[in-house]
Amino acid sequence: MKTWLIRLSVTLNVLTLAVAAGVYFNGASLVRSFLEPMYERKFSFFDSYPIASGATVFLGDSITEGGEWQEVFPALRAINRGIGGDITTGVLQRLEQVSKAAPERVFLMIGTNDLTHGPDSRDTSYQQYREIVQRLQQESPRTEIFLQSVLPRAADKQEEVEAYNAVIAEIATATGTTFIDLYPAFLDPDGSIKDAYSNDELHLNGPGYQLWQAQLQDYMN
Predict the structure, then answer these.
(1) Which residue of 25, 109, 121, 172 is 20 to 30 Å from 137, comparing CA positions?
(2) What parts of the sequence cross the membrane (predicted)?
């Protein structure tokens, strides 16, 4: 059998098992159990390699993790603190790794995973987002904080994403931080993320990161 057929067969088997498991287990709990070991490995790595003084930190989930930020902004001391699958709960748990370094800037993007496997209550997710910002301000008062909107996803998530972004904008106003609304630049008229920037309606490709870079450029000067 050809290699690609073997891979296809394995993939289909995995998907079948995942669907079967979903019948017996809560989907969000299943996702969390899959992501926890990866989170622990990244947490350990970040503990072992602390953030240098004067850094610009990109903090978030897999969308942040996927950016090679030192290449995107070569003039900055750019540090990637994204973890795939992370939610507001996870960022809170590891926030001290960021705040104790007193970075020059923090660009936060978090919340898209809260829509699928975050806290049971959306209000809890919003409160945890507020707590992230408030703790950063208290623990690292000289750090400039930028709150980036959640990016578009599939069209059926449009209402949820826009509701979350409205809360982020409110938090930015209430805390005196800067809200960067990336959402419109990535939005397709059908309500999803534009195909030019993502091949799975969630994660970004090269042009997606180039667009993100252009949206942030003015905040780097």
Answers:
(1) 121
(2) none
